[in-house]
Amino acid sequence: LASIVKYPYESSLAGRHGKFGFFCSEKADFIKVADELGMLPVNDPDGRIRYARHPLVYLVEAADDICYQIMDIEDAHKLKILSTEEVIPLLLSYFDRARADHITRIMAAVDDPNEKIAYLRSSIVGALVGRCADAFADHEDEILSGTFRGSLLDHIPDIERDAYRACEALSWKKIYCAGDVVEIELAGTRIISFLIDELVKAVTNPELNYSRLLLAKVPLQYEIDAPTLYGKIQAVLDHISGMTDVYALDLYRRLNGMSLKINN
């Protein structure tokens, strides 16, 4: 539990970035986790709950960042958002000349461009895992004392760090802003906003017939009849955040009458 909480402080400390590790209603539960695992509390002048990260968070964060960044490049290549000619030099920049030459010779024996990129991807992931492990060991005292700043990827050697930043910049420029990607994100935002609006209306007006019908579809694990408005809305958010893309889209269509099943 501690290792997945990247921002170990309560929601009232989220600030303008909207990032936090647990809701105020979950404060007692998180304090129990933190106390059991020896997490270091950080003094807050207003008495709000904040901790230094658990050391394992840095490993989970690095694994997350490595996989998403490199695999986004690979996926963009498969979707032809990025060309083979621009991806190969970009990914080879993670290695020194000797290693890059060795990888290039191996790729020359492979005809399928996607297989070439897959080989590069696996080589980069292996290299970055090793560098992040070294960074973790080199900064162990700071990590354990809660004084470490930044991510492990900020502390790897220049060649890999610069290559990672170049991938990051290209991703924002050409992948995340690509027309098809933006259209999907806009549609997803519309679907999630609609579901939040409908379910919040339902939990705040449970006496309405439409509300009863909609709430009957919510699994029992979500406390939609919580005694407080805060608890009701939190149950809605928990439910929606647990939906798969396919389920959310299907529910959106059904609520809008787009995919009704009518038996004659």
Keyphrases for this structure?
mainly alpha, flat, 264 residues, 11 helices
Q: Helical content, roughly?
A: 55-70%
Number of helices: 11
Globally, the shape reads flat
What composes the largest sheet?
none
| Cα-to-Cα separation, first versus last residue | 50 Å
Describe the overall structure:
- The structure is a single chain.
- The chain contains 11 helices and no strands.
- By secondary structure, it is an all-alpha fold.
- α2 (55-78) crosses α7 and α8 (179-204) runs antiparallel to α10 (229-241).
- The longest helix has 26 residues, at 113-138.
- The mean pLDDT is 91.
Task: Give the topology, please.
Elements: H1 27-37, H2 55-78, H3 84-92, H4 97-108, H5 113-138, H6 140-145, H7 158-175, H8 179-204, H9 209-215, H10 229-241, H11 245-255
Helix pairs in contact: 2-5, 2-7, 3-5, 8-9, 8-10, 8-11
Task: Summarize, please.
By secondary structure, the protein is mainly alpha-helical.
